[in-house]
Amino acid sequence: SNYIATGAKPVDTADATYCFWANSSASGENRGTFSHGNDDNGSFSMNHHLNRPLIYLDGNLFQYWAAQTSLSSDGLWHHWAVVVDVSDMTACKLYIDGTEIEQDNTRNESYANINTYGNIQLGKNNSNFYEGYLCNFGVWAGLLDQPEVKSIMNKSYAELSSDEKSYKGGLQAWWN
């Protein structure tokens, strides 16, 4: 399976927003979309575990969202925005195509200390590979809100305004 080892660490255990387009026809467990290192302490990943999007920041620090069976494996392009509040997992948000997705609070843990992140990998977490396509992957420092996510959703890097690149703590990295 293919993935991109970026060699970059755009954020390090800080609040961040990850925005990207994804297209997949695969479903099931452990579709690693991106990560900061491996799937153990000090890592970050978002995958489709049982078609439930999952943020996993540390050994006992994770959050699931409601199942997205049709959106995570329908073979169409969807815009994903993962808003990560490292101090409160229940404050993390997920937007798909600009719509906020409900958390599955029966499947979360929020106690742990986050260690340092590794370099970001696109299309992989630990030994789990994303089966599909990713593009226009941007990382902003800080917690973008829904209007900000919607304003950048359909834009390439060249189309982003200087205001959009400056949202919250600013755009830290971009991969086409």
- Considering DSSP H and I runs of 4 or more, what fraction of the residues is helical? under 10%
Q: Given the structure, what is the number of helices?
A: 3
Oligomer: single chain
Q: First CA to last CA: what distance?
A: 19 Å
Unreliable segments (pLDDT under 50, ≥5 consecutive)? none
What is the structural class? mainly beta
The radius of gyration over CA amounts to 14 Å
Looking across the biggest beta sheet, what order are the strands in? 1-11-3-4-5-6-10
- The portion of residues forming beta strands comes to 35-45%
SSE layout and pairings?
Blueprint: E1 4-5, E2 16-23, E3 34-36, E4 45-49, E5 52-58, E6 61-65, H1 69-72, E7 77-84, E8 93-96, E9 99-100, E10 103-110, E11 120-122, E12 124-125, E13 128-129, E14 133-141, H2 146-152, H3 162-165, E15 171-175
Antiparallel strand pairs: 1-11, 2-7, 2-14, 3-4, 3-11, 4-5, 5-6, 6-10, 7-8, 8-9, 12-13, 14-15
